[in-house]
Inverse folding.
């Protein structure tokens, strides 16, 4: 459990050191979600929620911008809720669960941004953020799926 | 927990991904793609229009009490400086088409282009 938090933190740090590939707010790889998806499958949703929230908090403190914590938090909560629901249906694999997580994470951020900035202009970003959520979610889901299969967790 | 067979789950994964991509495409075209040159550079701070400059007038403007610097030159507008660590708005490049955006989330600043020569096309209509 602590290990998973540490992993999520390391992945977040790695990501914060890689320059943004595209100059669009909200487009990033979401590497840390590997840890969250992994824990969701191996330990359960409560643990995944804890990892996710601890990560948001610590990452904001360590490498982030305090003003952006609401964006991260909204993204994390929405993404987690979506992933839990999809997983619960039993109809999808890690890939779709992670894709939903990625897309919802971006939706959460747009939503908070629109509320905080009191504007509806940000809706123009929805399409590109959906696509980027799908792409990154796919990659993360693939990786997390491999980990889920290969690593045994006790307890 | 009961789970669908692996193969079926992968097909459903694919279906979900396709559905999302189609949704993105529909949204993209329903919002309208910026393609006409705009007239005004509009600065919105925390949801309120804070300033409006003609795109034709060259100049450098300090926004939001100094958090961002906007440059307008030769019919293009861009953010030349920002106080935030990520510098995303600076990297967003130059805009000049009606409906294009530059967003600086940490500072709550949005710069957008509005209106054509006829006094403003209603892009929301």
């Amino acid at each position: 459990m602590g290990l998973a938090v540490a992993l999520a933190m390391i992945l977040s740090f790695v990501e914060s050191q890689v320059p943004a590939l595209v100059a669009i707010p909200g487009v990033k790889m979401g590497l840390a979600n590997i840890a969250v998806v992994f824990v969701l499958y191996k330990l359960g949703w409560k643990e995944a929620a804890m990892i996710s929230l601890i990560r948001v908090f610590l990452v904001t403190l360590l490498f982030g911008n305090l003003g952006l914590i609401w964006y991260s938090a909204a993204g994390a909560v929405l993404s987690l809720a979506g992933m839990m629901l999809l997983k619960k249906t039993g109809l999808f694999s890690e890939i779709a669960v992670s894709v939903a997580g990625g897309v919802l994470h971006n939706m959460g951020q747009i939503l908070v941004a629109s509320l905080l900035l009191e504007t509806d202009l940000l809706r123009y970003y929805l399409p590109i953020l959906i696509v980027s959520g799908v792409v990154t979610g796919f990659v993360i889901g693939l990786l997390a799926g491999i980990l889920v299969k290969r690593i045994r967790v006790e307890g | 927990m009961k789970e669908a067979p692996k193969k079926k789950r992968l097909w459903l994964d694919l279906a979900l991904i396709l559905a999302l991509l189609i949704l993105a495409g529909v949204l993209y075209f329903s919002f309208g793609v910026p393609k006409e040159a705009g007239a005004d550079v509009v600065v919105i701070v925390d949801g309120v229009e804070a300033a409006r400059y003609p795109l034709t007038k060259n100049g450098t403007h300090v926004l939001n009490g100094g958090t961002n610097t906007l440059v307008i030159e030769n019919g293009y507008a861009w953010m030349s400086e920002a106080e935030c660590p990520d510098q995303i708005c600076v990297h967003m490049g130059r805009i000049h088409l009606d409906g294009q955006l530059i967003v600086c989330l940490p500072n709550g600043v949005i710069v957008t282009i509005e209106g054509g020569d006829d006094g403003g096309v209603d892009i929301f209509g």
Observations:
- The radius of gyration of chain B is 20 Å.
- The longest helix of chain B spans residues 6-31.
- Chain B has two domains: 1-31, 40-114.
- Strands of chain B lie at 40-45, 48-54, 59-63, 68-73, 76-82, 101-104, 109-114.
